[in-house]
Specification:
10-stranded mixed β-sheet, signal
């Protein structure tokens, strides 16, 4: 009888767990053609990345706060900017430079104080195509997600 009670209790807890799958909603505002542009620094340590721009055509943006953009396996914070009098949401995805960070290895552990621990890789929460992006925003106290499709790619910038 105890085993039956424990089984029912375990089943109840497993069914009440939160969903880890993120739900997409309709785009909450009107926007123009989203574009992305790859860039690369002139030196290996400068790194490379992708800039994403989403022109916002709706005045409804003031009510919600955009948070993050998920694009091509990368995550970046979204900022609102003004370009030629129009609002634009921007996200800058920086790829790691090819070189590894310097690390001090010493017999005296006090000499190793500046070393940074390795960053834990997060699992990317969405399966997206090359021209798709998901943006998270805060609507009241709730985080919501919407997808942008058909992102046009501009000619890459190569810095000297």
């Amino acid at each position: 009888m105890k085993i039956f009670n424990y089984t029912i209790l375990a089943l109840a807890f497993s069914l009440s767990a939160c969903s880890s799958q993120k739900k997409l909603v309709e785009t909450p505002f009107e926007m123009g053609q989203a574009t992305c542009q790859s860039w690369a620094g002139g030196r290996p340590e400068a790194g490379s990345g992708i800039n994403l721009e989403i022109p916002l055509l709706s005045e409804k943006i003031g009510e919600m706060k955009m948070q993050r953009a998920f694009f091509r396996g990368m995550v970046a914070d979204v900022t609102l900017d003004s370009n030629e009098g129009k609002q634009v949401a921007k996200a800058s995805f920086k790829k790691q430079a090819s070189g590894k960070m310097d690390m001090v290895m010493h017999a005296d552990s006090k000499e190793e104080v500046g070393n940074q621990p390795p960053k834990k890789e997060e699992k990317f929460p969405f399966e997206l195509g090359n021209d798709q992006c998901v943006v998270s925003y805060l609507d009241g106290d709730t985080i919501k997600y919407f997808m942008i499709e058909g992102i046009k790619e501009k000619k890459p910038l190569i810095y000297k």
